[in-house]
Amino acid sequence: MSATGEGGRPEHLTAHPRPGDRAPDLTLPDQHGEPVTLSEAVRGRAALLVFFPAAFTSICTGELLEVQLDIDTFANDRVQVHGISCDPQSSLRAWAALEGYRFPLLSDFWPHGQVCRSYGVLDERHGRPLRGTFLVDPTMTVRWSSVHGPDEERPIGLLHEAVRDR
Questions:
Q1: What pLDDT shows up at residue 74?
Q2: Are the C-beta atoms of residues 121 and 26 closer than 8 Å to each other?
Q3: Is 60 in the active site?
Q4: 121 within some domain
Q5: What is the mean pLDDT of the chain?
Q6: 135 in a domain, yes or no?
Q7: Which tens digits make up the pLDDT trace of 140-157?
Q8: What is the pLDDT of residue 165?
Q9: I need a surface site. Which of 12, 25, 43, 125 has the fewest CB within 10 A?
């Protein structure tokens, strides 16, 4: 059993960016192999970064389906959703097609977990991200963040509150 800190978060993880911190930039391929760079994606609108442990798992599927059902709330002219995991691009493509996700799923597969690590949500022991969520504004400033353990479902209502004010 590993030691855990705040919110079921394993203690061996680095700190994640907090509101007011500069968001680490990232460039990752989406499920179709197209590179997505955060600093370009936030031009003129915010980005909601939704880190998840693994495609095709029950909690992750449920969370992202809730985001998908409320896509007009989460992804609009003010906010773009980006799902991020360490799954390979081909898995994310198959999962997005199966579930009908209409937002980019970004693969942090190689170098494994580099972006997850920069956001302080990579569980190094298990090689997967925690359920981190970050709202990044057009100036690359984190405006809202929440991190939950891999088996702890994130409350979608919190995402609604974060996005509503943008």
A1: 66
A2: no
A3: yes
A4: yes
A5: 88
A6: yes
A7: 999 999 999 888 888 888
A8: 64
A9: 43
The verdict on residue 23 lying in a domain is yes
Tell me which residue range forms the domain holding 53.
6-164
Q: Would you list the DSSP string of 144-166?
A: EEEEE-TTSPPPHHHHHHHHHT-
The count of structural domains within the chain is 1
Question: pTM of the full predicted structure?
Answer: 0.88
**Torsion sign (Cα): 92, 87, 157, 78:** negative
Q: What CATH number did the domain enclosing 145 receive?
A: 3.40.30.10
**Is the bond preceding residue 111 a cis peptide, omega within 30 degrees?**
yes
Cβ neighbours of residue 78 under 8 Å, at least 6 residues apart? Answer: 45, 46, 163, 166
When pLDDT is averaged across residues 113-127 and rounded to a whole number, the result is: 96
Quote the CA–CA distance of 16 and 133 in Å, as a whole number: 10
Q: Could you tell me where the DSSP H helices lie in 43-140? A: 58-69, 71-74, 89-99, 114-118
129 within 8 A of 53, measured Cβ to Cβ: yes
The pLDDT of residue 77 is 73
Residue 132 lies in a domain: yes
CB 61 within 8 A of CB 151: no
Cα separation, 2 vs 8, in Å, equals 10
- Which residues neighbour 83 within 8 Å (Cβ) at sequence distance 6 or greater? 50, 51, 52, 64, 67, 92, 101, 103, 104, 105, 106
